[in-house]
Amino acid sequence: MGRSVPYGLTLGVTLAALAGVVVPARAQDVTCNGTPGELEVRKVSFAGNRHYRGGELANAIVTTPSSWFQRLPVLHFGARRCLDTLELRRDVYRLRLFYRQRGYYHSGVDTRVIPRGGSLVAVAFRVNEGEPVLIDSMRVLGLDSVQGGPDLVRRMMGMRRRPYDRVRLSGLVDSVMDRLRNEGYARAEQTEKFDSVDTDRDRATVMRSFAPGPLMRIGRLAFEIDPYEPGAPLQIPERVVRKLLSFREGKVYRQQDLLDSQRDLYQTEAYRLVEVSLAPDSLQPRGDSLVVLTRLSEGTMRSMRLGAGYGTLDCIRAQGRFTDRNFFGGARRLEVNGRLSKIGVGAPLDFARSICPSLRDDQFSDNLNYYGGITFRPPALFGPRNIPSLTVFSERRSEFNAYLRETPFGANASLTRELQQRTPLTVSYQVEFGRTTANAAVFCSIFNTCDLGAISRLQGGGSLQTFSVGVARDRTDNIVDPRAGSLMRLDLRHGISSLSSGSGAQFNKGFIEGTLYRSVGRGTTFAGRLQIGGVLAQNLFSGVSDFVPPQERLYAGGPNSVRGYNQNELGPVVYIVSNTTSFARIAPGQPIPPELRNNPDSAINSGADTLFLAGDTARLQRFSPTGGNALIVGNLELRFRSPIYPERVQLSTFLDFGQVWTRRNEIVSFGDLRFTPGVGARLGTPVGLVGVDVGYRRYASQPGPAFFVGRLHPELPLEQDPPTLLCVSPGNLLAEGQLPIGASCPSTFAPALGSSFRSHLTLHVSIGQAF
Hints:
The relative contact order is 0.07. This protein is mainly β. A hairpin with an 8-residue loop joins strand 14 and strand 15. The N terminus is likely disordered.
């Protein structure tokens, strides 16, 4: 005859025996303290566990192996953790309790300590899960008459014929209560529960009873608002606060509306304290109406923040922000933002060029980068969930070795709506009046425009209009240094660019990014990210096919991308070499001298003669990334605490991969992906995380076209033979009538990468995590 065990007494004897023993497992300290005879735990393993992973079981016990670095055969640094025999015996009970709470009443656990030489041991847990107790009878009462009740009952009834898992059962009950309170049943409660377990038959009977109560509506809104200074008038009146709430009088009560309103009020940054909740029972009326109480304590309405920092590609940078959170009343927000970068290398503040050596050869870092903008943001538009914003700005922005964007005037209008918690949807329209400057070789190689006069016209002033839609879903546990959760982002853009001549081009751009964070042990986090992007031009631009403005193209490489490469160095690139003065003309029928025939230089057929531009005296002056219209970038990183100052220093190992393609000229192939491993460190400072990463690149330099500015007929007057871009890639042979045509310049030039190990390393200094 089976034994029936009441729910409240299922663990009675066991818990009494373990009084003070079954505690949060990870709260115990098993760090080695140098006591003679201590046994260091090098490995903890589990066998026989079919339904639960070893990581879940490891989180339920105290016995823990030494850190990963401590277990390496050479380094031997990191946390050392030793065996506590008392806690090991308790771990057996902890694992049995873990299984019992999940319906495995017959589980058994054995342990074995395995010597590993000297004072080192491994601990092995062997689990015999046994057969689970199944729920063969389940009743859910009280939900038939509520909206969505049948669906809630089906979810609960899904436990039938499954293990009697009290952890999951409790979670289902909580979800039912949340659902009821978000459907208007503010006074819903679980009135009765009954569980009976027959361990001889391995069967359980479960009953849950709910009392939803009446459907409630919001009858009155009450407010308690404290001014910033005692006795002073309110800076934001009550009528404005009402507009910021997600609910109104007469609306069906939903618990989530109160939480959303509390978050929205906090995000105005105008209050030191925000609390939105049901008023105490003594203030609640009889019947089906409720009083919702909003308690607020006003904060300062104006503030200013200043900051400065250093980055590999920004050199010294500074920024400032002034915020008025109640501009002309009504909780309207006004922000004035200013930023400067390239301080130290850019005129007129080029006083310390030696501290930023990587920017010496960047033609776009000769002057300061700046941004100045004013943003006006009303609290809401057509409801509290819609947040409009209008920004006017002026800026000078450069991308390392790629382009310079100068915008004397620009404006951006956007509307953001929170679809779900931490899931904003943003629609925006931006117009800029300015000019984009890129190296002439970029236009020659990618856009088939090599005439310097035509390039100058292409880089003339004009407008750029973009319409964009972006949505992000943030489920991370920390904005600055996430340890768990995920982040998804999707951006779609449609743009129209025009020149002063009135010509223009349209393009579409899409970008998707997914990031995942997982805790894989004490102080250790796995982070992974994948980015995919594409650009599609829609029409011709001044006779140039597939034109996309340089600032809208895709680039890879750098501290937040593939770290084995310098900024924008991964992907299509053109090279600029210093001007060479070695020329030779060979008439038709005459033999080519061996020093030219065997020299990997350029040969240009100039009319009846062949003009050789000997490149033996040429040297690389700079590279210019052209960007691409297809991108894949991925990052895998393991972050862990440093053995020295673990609360301030974080170490990491990473593997980055990616590539950028130009689909008109290349085929997207995963075989082109470049993989670069590396190591990094992050130091916590009062201004945030400061990071250093070193990536290793084993690949040769990316082949590309090589150009220099020269003249085909230097013997002629300058006005008859103006300078133009000349292709000097090895193996080039072009007819003069075809010159200059950049698409015909072969991608055969590749600067030599040094043979030393150090030449394959790339150093990055940045602020914050790489992603």
